[in-house]
Amino acid sequence: MQLYIGNKNYSSWSLRPWLLMTHAAIAFEEVPLRLSFEAGSPFKMALAAVAPSGKVPVLVDDGFAVWDTLAIAEYLAEKFPDMSLWPDASKARARARSLCSEMHGGFAALRNACPMNIEAELPEVGVRLLRDDPGVVQDLARINTMWQQQLDQTGGPFLFGAFSIADAYFAPVVTRIRTYGLPVPPLVQGYVDRIVALPAMRQWVAQALAEHDFLPFDEPYRSQA
Question: pLDDT tens-digit profile of 51-90?
Fold first, then answer.
């Protein structure tokens, strides 16, 4: 299988299947592409050859392309049923899917105001957003409530006990909490720390820091030095 991804510093969508597959030791070839949304760019041309979406990530398995993160997760869960990528219990599976769908289609304020930027440290931006942007305040409150409820219910260490698709799906939020210094309660902070400490997550972060690639369209708060 091949997994097409964008810059590790910026591409939150790419992080999800990459982390899931790497943590689960699912073999794949990584195909990194420099993010660009301009027609005719190498990024767009490479993706046009494998999928119609023109976006990352894309999973290609024996020539068959899957280009939505939830679809990729479901495809992998069905391809590797013994790996328990979703929780084993039916109700837990349904709840995990519900939370992933909520993340997939929601939290627009947090996404837009706090784009993933692993290399940056922007706590002053976080302070300003929590003061001036009620949408970010609401989204962060929902994240805190969601994670606390799951961790209280399961006892951790991850949202559904063992690491699952849900944890991979929320990993980009973990990076946003760190980049923007967003306040979280102690139980949630412990979960954030555990995600960051995962060997696969540490590998992604190290490679993101090694990119040294400044993309202005993903940098609303900084200018290139």
Answer: 999 999 999 999 999 999 999 999 999 999 999 999 999 9
Q: How far lies 39's CA from each of 45, 54, 214, in Å?
A: 8, 10, 20
SS percent in the chain: helix, strand, coil, step 5: 55, 10, 35
Of 20, 214, 15, nearest to 119 by C-alpha is 214
- Which domains are delineated in the chain? 2-83 (3.40.30.10), 90-208 (1.20.1050.10)
> Can you give the pTM of this predicted structure?
0.97
Task: Specify whether the CB–CB gap between 74 and 94 falls below 8 A.
Answer: no
Q: How many CB atoms lie within 10 A of CB 145?
A: 12
Confirm if 100 and 169 have CB atoms less than 8 A apart: yes
